[in-house]
Protein backbone atom coordinates (compact mmCIF):
# COMPACT_ATOMS: atom_id res chain seq x y z
CA UNK A 1 0.00 0.00 0.00
CA UNK A 2 1.36 3.41 -0.95
CA UNK A 3 2.26 5.54 2.04
CA UNK A 4 1.10 9.12 2.16
CA UNK A 5 3.88 11.72 2.11
CA UNK A 6 3.13 14.62 4.46
CA UNK A 7 6.38 16.09 5.78
CA UNK A 8 8.99 18.26 4.14
CA UNK A 9 11.75 16.02 5.47
CA UNK A 10 10.57 13.00 3.50
CA UNK A 11 9.61 15.08 0.48
CA UNK A 12 13.21 16.23 0.07
CA UNK A 13 14.07 12.73 -1.14
CA UNK A 14 11.51 12.95 -3.94
CA UNK A 15 12.42 16.28 -5.54
CA UNK A 16 14.32 14.97 -8.55
CA UNK A 17 13.65 15.86 -12.19
CA UNK A 18 10.84 18.26 -11.35
CA UNK A 19 9.35 20.59 -13.95
CA UNK A 20 6.53 23.07 -13.40
CA UNK A 21 3.08 22.30 -14.73
CA UNK A 22 1.29 25.54 -13.94
CA UNK A 23 2.13 29.19 -13.40
CA UNK A 24 5.30 29.61 -11.36
CA UNK A 25 4.60 32.96 -9.70
CA UNK A 26 1.28 32.19 -7.96
CA UNK A 27 0.06 35.71 -8.68
CA UNK A 28 -3.66 36.43 -8.64
CA UNK A 29 -6.60 34.26 -7.69
CA UNK A 30 -8.39 32.28 -10.38
CA UNK A 31 -10.81 29.37 -10.38
CA UNK A 32 -13.01 27.95 -7.66
CA UNK A 33 -13.64 24.65 -5.90
CA UNK A 34 -16.83 23.13 -4.52
CA UNK A 35 -16.60 20.34 -1.95
CA UNK A 36 -19.68 18.24 -1.19
CA UNK A 37 -20.34 15.12 0.85
CA UNK A 38 -20.69 14.13 4.49
CA UNK A 39 -17.91 14.15 7.06
CA UNK A 40 -16.17 10.79 7.11
CA UNK A 41 -17.16 9.96 3.53
CA UNK A 42 -15.00 10.60 0.48
CA UNK A 43 -15.60 14.19 -0.66
CA UNK A 44 -16.70 15.12 -4.16
CA UNK A 45 -14.47 17.96 -5.31
CA UNK A 46 -15.59 19.96 -8.35
CA UNK A 47 -13.22 22.40 -10.05
CA UNK A 48 -14.41 25.51 -11.88
CA UNK A 49 -11.50 26.66 -14.00
CA UNK A 50 -7.80 26.57 -13.22
CA UNK A 51 -7.31 27.15 -9.50
CA UNK A 52 -4.56 29.55 -8.56
CA UNK A 53 -4.08 31.14 -5.13
CA UNK A 54 -1.62 33.82 -4.09
CA UNK A 55 -2.80 33.55 -0.46
CA UNK A 56 -3.77 30.31 1.26
CA UNK A 57 -7.45 30.10 2.19
CA UNK A 58 -8.72 27.85 5.00
CA UNK A 59 -12.42 27.12 5.48
CA UNK A 60 -14.17 24.86 8.01
CA UNK A 61 -16.84 23.06 6.02
CA UNK A 62 -18.16 21.00 8.93
CA UNK A 63 -17.33 21.95 12.51
CA UNK A 64 -16.93 19.07 14.92
CA UNK A 65 -17.66 19.12 18.63
CA UNK A 66 -14.54 17.32 19.82
CA UNK A 67 -11.41 18.70 21.44
CA UNK A 68 -9.17 20.85 19.19
CA UNK A 69 -5.89 19.42 17.96
CA UNK A 70 -2.88 21.07 19.61
CA UNK A 71 -0.30 22.89 17.48
CA UNK A 72 2.15 20.08 18.24
CA UNK A 73 -0.48 17.35 18.50
CA UNK A 74 -1.18 14.21 16.53
CA UNK A 75 -4.39 13.39 14.68
CA UNK A 76 -5.94 10.55 12.74
CA UNK A 77 -7.29 12.03 9.52
CA UNK A 78 -8.72 11.24 6.14
CA UNK A 79 -7.11 13.39 3.48
CA UNK A 80 -7.79 14.42 -0.12
CA UNK A 81 -5.15 16.22 -2.18
CA UNK A 82 -6.03 17.76 -5.55
CA UNK A 83 -4.01 19.58 -8.20
CA UNK A 84 -5.52 23.02 -8.75
CA UNK A 85 -3.85 23.41 -12.12
CA UNK A 86 -5.17 20.19 -13.69
CA UNK A 87 -8.32 19.83 -11.58
CA UNK A 88 -7.31 16.22 -10.92
CA UNK A 89 -7.30 14.23 -7.70
CA UNK A 90 -3.68 13.57 -6.73
CA UNK A 91 -4.25 11.32 -3.75
CA UNK A 92 -7.02 10.29 -1.36
CA UNK A 93 -6.73 8.21 1.78
CA UNK A 94 -10.36 7.20 1.20
CA UNK A 95 -9.17 5.32 -1.89
CA UNK A 96 -6.59 3.57 0.28
CA UNK A 97 -9.39 2.78 2.77
CA UNK A 98 -7.06 3.75 5.60
CA UNK A 99 -6.85 7.02 7.54
CA UNK A 100 -3.47 8.62 8.02
CA UNK A 101 -1.77 9.63 11.27
CA UNK A 102 -0.24 13.12 11.13
CA UNK A 103 2.01 14.51 13.85
CA UNK A 104 2.27 18.28 13.68
CA UNK A 105 5.74 19.80 13.87
CA UNK A 106 7.90 22.44 12.23
CA UNK A 107 8.36 20.00 9.33
CA UNK A 108 4.66 19.52 8.62
CA UNK A 109 3.47 20.97 5.32
CA UNK A 110 2.10 24.45 6.16
CA UNK A 111 -1.20 23.87 4.35
CA UNK A 112 -1.74 20.58 6.16
CA UNK A 113 -0.94 22.23 9.49
CA UNK A 114 -3.51 24.94 8.70
CA UNK A 115 -6.09 22.21 8.17
CA UNK A 116 -5.44 20.44 11.49
CA UNK A 117 -3.88 22.67 14.17
CA UNK A 118 -6.54 24.23 16.38
CA UNK A 119 -9.39 22.51 14.55
CA UNK A 120 -11.92 20.44 16.49
CA UNK A 121 -12.12 16.69 16.18
CA UNK A 122 -15.03 15.84 13.91
CA UNK A 123 -14.35 18.75 11.55
CA UNK A 124 -13.97 18.78 7.78
CA UNK A 125 -11.58 21.50 6.65
CA UNK A 126 -10.82 22.78 3.15
CA UNK A 127 -7.52 24.46 2.33
CA UNK A 128 -6.81 26.14 -1.01
CA UNK A 129 -3.05 26.40 -0.77
CA UNK A 130 -0.44 28.43 -2.56
CA UNK A 131 2.40 26.46 -4.13
CA UNK A 132 4.63 27.59 -1.27
CA UNK A 133 2.27 26.52 1.53
CA UNK A 134 1.46 23.25 -0.22
CA UNK A 135 4.92 21.96 -1.12
CA UNK A 136 7.32 24.88 -0.56
CA UNK A 137 7.28 25.88 -4.26
CA UNK A 138 8.83 22.51 -5.07
CA UNK A 139 5.76 20.47 -5.92
CA UNK A 140 5.56 16.72 -5.46
CA UNK A 141 6.50 14.63 -8.49
CA UNK A 142 5.04 11.46 -6.99
CA UNK A 143 1.66 13.21 -6.97
CA UNK A 144 2.20 14.93 -10.35
CA UNK A 145 2.06 18.33 -8.70
CA UNK A 146 4.38 20.95 -10.20
CA UNK A 147 6.25 23.68 -8.37
CA UNK A 148 3.82 26.37 -9.56
CA UNK A 149 0.61 24.46 -8.85
CA UNK A 150 -1.84 25.57 -6.21
CA UNK A 151 -3.18 22.60 -4.25
CA UNK A 152 -6.52 21.65 -2.70
CA UNK A 153 -6.57 19.82 0.64
CA UNK A 154 -9.74 18.40 2.21
CA UNK A 155 -9.10 16.99 5.66
CA UNK A 156 -11.50 15.12 7.96
CA UNK A 157 -10.19 15.12 11.54
CA UNK A 158 -11.34 11.75 12.83
CA UNK A 159 -9.61 11.55 16.21
CA UNK A 160 -6.91 13.07 18.32
CA UNK A 161 -4.04 10.69 19.02
CA UNK A 162 -2.62 10.57 22.53
CA UNK A 163 1.07 10.37 23.34
CA UNK A 164 0.54 7.78 26.09
CA UNK A 165 -2.21 6.07 28.11
CA UNK A 166 -4.51 8.54 29.80
CA UNK A 167 -7.04 7.38 32.35
CA UNK A 168 -7.47 5.50 35.61
CA UNK A 169 -4.94 2.91 36.70
CA UNK A 170 -6.51 -0.39 37.65
CA UNK A 171 -5.53 -2.82 40.40
CA UNK A 172 -4.43 -6.06 38.76
CA UNK A 173 -4.24 -9.47 40.38
CA UNK A 174 -0.82 -10.97 40.89
CA UNK A 175 0.32 -13.49 38.34
CA UNK A 176 -0.36 -11.54 35.16
CA UNK A 177 2.57 -10.36 33.02
CA UNK A 178 3.95 -6.96 34.05
CA UNK A 179 5.20 -4.36 31.54
CA UNK A 180 8.83 -3.34 32.01
CA UNK A 181 9.53 0.30 31.14
CA UNK A 182 12.64 2.32 30.42
CA UNK A 183 12.51 6.08 29.85
CA UNK A 184 8.73 5.90 29.69
CA UNK A 185 8.63 3.23 26.96
CA UNK A 186 7.66 -0.41 27.36
CA UNK A 187 10.66 -2.61 26.58
CA UNK A 188 9.54 -6.08 27.69
CA UNK A 189 7.09 -8.13 29.73
CA UNK A 190 8.00 -9.81 33.01
CA UNK A 191 6.27 -13.10 33.75
CA UNK A 192 5.50 -14.48 37.20
CA UNK A 193 7.43 -17.70 37.88
CA UNK A 194 5.40 -20.88 37.68
CA UNK A 195 2.24 -19.25 36.31
CA UNK A 196 0.85 -21.08 33.29
CA UNK A 197 -0.96 -19.19 30.52
CA UNK A 198 -4.74 -19.50 30.22
CA UNK A 199 -6.31 -21.48 27.40
CA UNK A 200 -8.83 -18.78 26.60
CA UNK A 201 -8.40 -15.27 25.23
CA UNK A 202 -7.92 -12.87 28.12
CA UNK A 203 -7.99 -9.05 28.25
CA UNK A 204 -6.65 -7.34 31.40
CA UNK A 205 -7.06 -3.58 31.76
CA UNK A 206 -4.06 -1.85 33.31
CA UNK A 207 -5.22 1.71 32.59
CA UNK A 208 -8.83 2.46 31.67
CA UNK A 209 -9.11 5.42 29.34
CA UNK A 210 -12.03 7.80 29.15
CA UNK A 211 -12.22 8.11 25.36
CA UNK A 212 -14.52 6.34 22.92
CA UNK A 213 -14.56 2.55 22.97
CA UNK A 214 -13.44 0.62 19.92
CA UNK A 215 -16.29 -0.91 17.95
CA UNK A 216 -15.99 -3.53 15.23
CA UNK A 217 -14.78 -1.91 11.98
CA UNK A 218 -13.42 1.15 13.83
CA UNK A 219 -9.90 2.33 13.13
CA UNK A 220 -7.45 2.36 16.01
CA UNK A 221 -3.99 3.81 16.53
CA UNK A 222 -1.94 1.78 19.01
CA UNK A 223 1.51 1.15 20.38
CA UNK A 224 2.24 -2.43 21.36
CA UNK A 225 4.76 -5.01 22.44
CA UNK A 226 4.39 -8.75 21.96
CA UNK A 227 6.26 -11.55 23.71
CA UNK A 228 5.68 -15.27 23.87
CA UNK A 229 4.61 -16.44 27.32
CA UNK A 230 7.79 -16.85 29.38
CA UNK A 231 9.78 -15.61 26.37
CA UNK A 232 13.15 -14.00 26.98
CA UNK A 233 12.57 -11.00 24.72
CA UNK A 234 9.83 -9.41 22.58
CA UNK A 235 9.22 -10.76 19.09
CA UNK A 236 7.71 -7.45 17.95
CA UNK A 237 7.06 -3.95 19.31
CA UNK A 238 6.34 -0.39 18.23
CA UNK A 239 7.17 1.61 21.37
CA UNK A 240 10.64 2.40 20.01
CA UNK A 241 9.26 3.75 16.73
CA UNK A 242 8.12 7.29 15.99
CA UNK A 243 5.77 5.99 13.30
CA UNK A 244 2.09 5.49 14.07
CA UNK A 245 -0.54 4.05 11.76
CA UNK A 246 -4.28 3.46 11.84
CA UNK A 247 -5.67 -0.03 11.27
CA UNK A 248 -9.19 -1.36 11.21
CA UNK A 249 -10.30 -3.63 14.02
CA UNK A 250 -12.48 -6.72 13.61
CA UNK A 251 -12.07 -7.29 9.87
CA UNK A 252 -9.10 -9.67 9.76
CA UNK A 253 -6.32 -7.09 9.57
CA UNK A 254 -5.07 -8.25 12.97
CA UNK A 255 -4.77 -11.70 14.47
CA UNK A 256 -8.08 -12.96 15.88
CA UNK A 257 -6.97 -12.23 19.45
CA UNK A 258 -6.59 -8.55 18.63
CA UNK A 259 -9.69 -8.36 16.46
CA UNK A 260 -11.78 -9.72 19.31
CA UNK A 261 -9.84 -8.45 22.32
CA UNK A 262 -9.63 -4.79 21.27
CA UNK A 263 -13.38 -4.37 20.76
CA UNK A 264 -14.73 -2.41 23.72
CA UNK A 265 -11.35 -1.01 24.79
CA UNK A 266 -11.47 2.77 25.27
CA UNK A 267 -9.08 5.35 23.87
CA UNK A 268 -6.46 6.14 26.51
CA UNK A 269 -6.37 2.57 27.82
CA UNK A 270 -3.45 0.24 28.33
CA UNK A 271 -4.39 -3.43 28.21
CA UNK A 272 -2.77 -6.82 28.32
CA UNK A 273 -4.13 -9.31 25.81
CA UNK A 274 -3.17 -12.96 26.32
CA UNK A 275 -3.62 -14.84 23.09
CA UNK A 276 -3.67 -18.67 22.98
CA UNK A 277 -2.58 -20.30 19.70
CA UNK A 278 -6.10 -20.66 18.27
CA UNK A 279 -6.55 -16.88 18.51
CA UNK A 280 -3.02 -16.17 17.25
CA UNK A 281 -1.09 -17.94 14.54
CA UNK A 282 -2.46 -21.45 15.04
CA UNK A 283 -0.54 -24.70 15.05
CA UNK A 284 1.91 -23.46 12.40
CA UNK A 285 3.15 -20.54 14.47
CA UNK A 286 4.91 -17.64 12.76
CA UNK A 287 8.58 -17.53 11.83
CA UNK A 288 11.27 -18.78 14.18
CA UNK A 289 10.06 -16.80 17.22
CA UNK A 290 6.47 -18.07 17.56
CA UNK A 291 5.85 -21.81 17.81
CA UNK A 292 2.50 -23.47 17.25
CA UNK A 293 1.88 -24.03 20.97
CA UNK A 294 2.96 -20.56 22.12
CA UNK A 295 0.60 -18.28 23.99
CA UNK A 296 1.26 -14.68 23.08
CA UNK A 297 1.22 -11.80 25.54
CA UNK A 298 0.69 -8.25 24.30
CA UNK A 299 0.70 -4.93 26.07
CA UNK A 300 -1.25 -2.43 23.95
CA UNK A 301 -1.77 1.32 24.37
CA UNK A 302 -4.90 2.54 22.54
CA UNK A 303 -4.06 6.10 21.50
CA UNK A 304 -6.70 6.92 18.89
CA UNK A 305 -10.14 5.59 17.92
CA UNK A 306 -12.42 6.53 15.03
Automatic annotation (TrEMBL):
Keywords: Isomerase, Rotamase, Signal. SUPFAM superfamilies: FKBP-like. It catalyses: [protein]-peptidylproline (omega=180) = [protein]-peptidylproline (omega=0). Its EC number is 5.2.1.8. PROSITE patterns: FKBP_PPIASE, PROKAR_LIPOPROTEIN. The keyword Isomerase applies. This is Peptidyl-prolyl cis-trans isomerase. It comes from Nocardioides guangzhouensis.
